[in-house]
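Hi all, long-time lurker, first post. I run a small reading group and we've been trying to get comfortable going from sequence to structure in the token notation. Rather than ask abstract questions, I figured I'd post a concrete chain and ask someone more experienced to write out its structure so we can walk through it together at our next meeting. Sequence below, copied exactly:
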Amino acid sequence: MTAEEELAQIAIEVSACTLCRLHSSRKKAVPGEGPADADILFIGEGPGFHENEQGRPFVGAAGRFLEELLSSIDLRREQVFICNVVKCRPPGNRDPMPDEIETCRPYLDRQIATINPAVIVTLGRFSMARYFGTAKISSIHGQAKTIDGRLVVAMFHPAAALHQPNLKQSIEEDFRKLPSLIGQVRKRSAAGQPPPPADVQQLSMF
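-- Answer (accepted) --
Happy to help. Here is the structure in token form:
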């Protein structure tokens, strides 16, 4: 099975999933989207109203800001893979529950294994917790650590800037670090070397 076929199979399974309570209130599941060979994978928290309507991730106001951020570093949405830690909308846009995140975890694990991105960017505290545990996002945004041979970078969720405009500059600055980081990972991978230490990119190693 090709990577594209595996991602399509995961999407089919997600769309029919009834393993947790979230399936009972969803309109459309939101498996995620992007190329199977994406260098960078973004993990958000969960679908919102617009995502639930369309079955696509980040299509509301936060999605438009994410596209602006990508454009600022000469990337298009179509070049990256975007998904969430839970694939169905929590009712009323509440936070995803720990058991819901764990139930959805195998789908995300398979997506990451299939795409094998050079860099994972966590957007928001729930996706950040997958890699950074109980750390506070206000303390570690823009920081990275190497996990399973790739760099994971913690960032604020784009929606945070919509609610707290003072965070917009921090998010933009964190995004501007990504191209150099990806370039270093590519170069070292081609040479058969491990990912660079984060401080090569003026990121703090956590």
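A couple of things your group might point at:
The longest strand covers residues 150-155.
The chain has one domain: 3-201.
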